[in-house]
Amino acid sequence: MKHILLIAAALFCACLPARATYILIQTDHTQLVLTAQEDGALRTRYYGKRIEAPWQFLNDDSRFHGPNGSGPMTVPTTGGKYVREAALHVRYADGSHNTELYYTGHKSEYRNGVFTTTVMLRDPVTDLAVQLIYDAYEKEDVIVAHTEIVNGGKKTIELLDYASSAMHFEADRYLLTHTWGGWATEMQVERELLGHDTKVIESRRGVQTTQNNNPSFLLSLNTAEFSETAGDVIAGALAWSGNFRLAFDRDDAGRLSVIAGISPFASAYPLAPGETFITPDMVWTFSSAGAGQASRNLHRWARNWGVYRGGQVHPTLLNSWEGAYFTFTTETLLRMIDDAAGMGLEMFVLDDGWFAKDFPRNNDAAGLGDWEVNTAKLPEGIDYVASYAHDKGLKFGIWIEPEMVNPQSNLARRHPEWVVQSPGREIYQERNQWVLDLSNPKVQDFVFGIFDGVMKLSKNIDYVKWDCNRVIQSFGSTYLGKEQDRFFVEYCQGLYSVMKRIRTKYPDVIIQCCSSGGGRVDYGALHYFDEIWTSDNTDGDCRAYIQYATNLIYPPFIMGAHVSAVPNHQSGNVTPLKFRFDMACAGRLGLELQPKNFSARDRALAERCIASYYQYRDLVFTGDLYRLSSPYDSDYYALAYVAPDKSRAVVYTYCLRYQHRTGSQHPFRIDGLDPQRKYKVRELNVDRSCWWGDGQTFTGDFLGTGAFNPDLPQKYSSAVFYLEAE
Ligand code: DGJ
């Protein structure tokens, strides 16, 4: 990539400002304005669409009477005049808790589409130094912020709160959209108007940090209504795969502070003199055109910067899990590979169950930790199966769960000290397994070695599914001794350090981030992983909600989306095969079933759907998402991916609830098209043509009026359309 340094070190001074000054952090359409007063108080005055003369905020600062600590402090600290939710709370060696930061200077530089602004602050009493780093991604309208905290004093201090970033807003109403969930029901949307109190979204699970809540949100300003297309919307996502905390603190004047960062839960982090703590990134975007644009900003940023090899097309696949579970032989796998190749898929992924000899992995009670091939089950070994797949023209993938160990394993016997535990207490099992202590560098080496060792099983391994099937309980580290407060932070840092080594050695392997499904879906993990396993729940109905909400923040191309058998193994629900395909085709398409159980008719439909996917797959990976109908606000779910040059689009429509309507045609407005261009519309995955206009040509503005009204007569009717401009 070409890096051009346009402006270096624009401004730097190491003293209080002689006069009030303002700092502009801006992208093509957005602006963040900070002001520093003569006394050094640094306030965040504005984040929104670009305005002409932002210096005017300096005049307006006069309404924040009083010194440092009053008004929307850029870094709200515990101490001084400030009494609300803090982004930074330090306990000093003398036991005191007060920090007051003063602006000492800032500098900016521009590289290849990114403006980086560094703002320096200092507490003159304790010599604590703080740098705020803002990377402004011009074209994507995204600002990524993190904080570096330096102990400039002579004694070790404790960081009690150390958020990545705080933002402040002034609006009449704040509608918060965020997600809750659990295993197989990840990413369920909740919307709420914020009251005068502090709303906290937090994870204390150590790993599987996103199974319940995701570290992300949308905030619609001055409205009680969620709108795709209108109004000011902020979106935020913390890039961290460990414990997190998002606080929404609304004061008596109605101002809102959003403070996002690592959760301080059991993590009073010690910082020695001269040491620096670097927080994870907080990703922000602003849209003045509703939630749709906010999501598209994040998706574009994810494609260009935020996700490992973002936007690169990934192969379709057959995964062995729900089709074979733990019960397979080499023969079973070869026949699945034959079927995958026959149906036009591009990869076969061997899931759980292939490893461990002394404690064979024939169920989930044994084997994790012992990563040698179970030759009793697969006497010919992995290379034989992987090479067979390659000979058939398929890529090959394999499953691992390297952070975990079963008590029933050689590893648990050899290294009991590597297990996460608290002295003298029972180490609780979940899914019959324990967690390995990734804060320990020896364990990091071991986990890297698992990946490295598995890659050596065959030169034909193209894809690794990295699983993580439990949360941390009875937390503690034998390695960290008395410094247990480091544990949660250093576990996650240890994971990232392993991933860095893996990516250095294996830059081209596709790695899926799976954690019992969507237990680790965040931009921290996605810096290293190519995709996620969106959920173990592949029921097309449930997936409508899970995929809709995942895409509020994360791009469609990261979603592993599989067609599985019915009744669904998680929900017991029965949906038509076409509906399941139409839903899975909105992500990275895969199958997770035993293909030999297909009827001839179903197999033919499957082959048709797979073949048609390749016509528009690039739009899943690089198109812009337009949500046309939300499963929460309508009986229908519909979305479109539109090529950035608006020359092509794919439109998905689903009926989720049958309302006994006499006319079953439902109107959708296809947003995002070029109003002037003419598009030929063709229905794909057809088992019964369902739009009168199929095969005809229409202008983009006509398709945006609601005249696009496919016939979706029943619950689980669905249709997919491909649009090409003339
Ligand atoms: C949980 C994952 O989400 C599943 O897809 C599968 O890989 C199992 N683990 C295997 O144990």
Which class of the largest domain in CATH terms? Mainly Beta
Tell me the overall shape.
globular
Q: First CA to last CA: what distance?
A: 34 Å
How many strand elements?
A: 36
The set of bound ligands, ions and cofactors reads: (2R,3S,4R,5S)-2-(hydroxymethyl)piperidine-3,4,5-triol
For CATH, the homologous superfamily of the largest domain is named as alpha-galactosidase from lactobacil brevis
Radius of gyration: 26 Å
Number of domains: 3
The helix fraction, in percent, is 10-25%
Taking pLDDT < 50 over at least 5 consecutive residues as the criterion, the unreliable ranges are 1-14
Report the mean per-residue pLDDT as an integer. 95
CATH topology of the largest domain: Beta-galactosidase, Chain A, domain 5
What is the annotated CATH architecture of the largest domain? Distorted Sandwich
How many DSSP helices? 12
Summing up helix and strand content along with how strands pair, one would put the structural category as alpha+beta
Proportion of β residues? 25-35%
